[in-house]
Each structure stands twice: as C-alpha cells, then as structure tokens.
C-alpha cells in the first residue's frame, strides 16, 4: 500500500472512530479504549505525513 492510500485509510478510521466516540460519550459509557485508539491513529497519521514529506 502506498503512503497516500495509507494516510487516507488512517484519516477515514479516525473520523469514523470520532463519530462513534461522540455517540458513546452521550450515553455515559466508558470511552478510554476508543480515546487511546484515537491517540494511536493521530501518531500514525503524523508518522505517515512525515514519511511523505521526506520523500
């Protein structure tokens, strides 16, 4: 998979997860695992962007 595709996939997952997180937060359920995953995705997006920049 090329870096552009990987970046798009990560962004899609991030946005999707954010929407799910907002729904779960509104019901009062715990969200720590989802929040942790969002942080992981943020880091992965940052790394892929850096790789693209360094090409």
TrEMBL record:
Keywords in alphabetical order: Coiled coil, Ribonucleoprotein, Ribosomal protein
Coiled-coil residue spans: 7-51
InterPro entries to which the protein is assigned, alphabetical: SE1832-like (IPR048062)
Naturally occurring in which organism (per UniProt): Jeotgalicoccus coquinae
NCBIfam families in UniProt: SE1832_fam
Protein name listed in UniProt: Ribosomal protein L29
Gene Ontology cellular component annotations, sorted alphabetically: ribosome
UniProt keyword Ribonucleoprotein, yes or no: yes
Domain of life: Bacteria
């Amino acid at each position: 998979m090329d870096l552009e595709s990987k970046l798009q996939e990560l962004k899609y997952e991030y946005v999707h997860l954010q929407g799910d997180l907002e729904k779960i937060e509104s019901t009062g359920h715990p969200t720590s695992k989802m929040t942790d995953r969002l942080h992981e995705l943020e880091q992965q997006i940052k790394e892929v962007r850096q790789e693209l920049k360094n090409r």
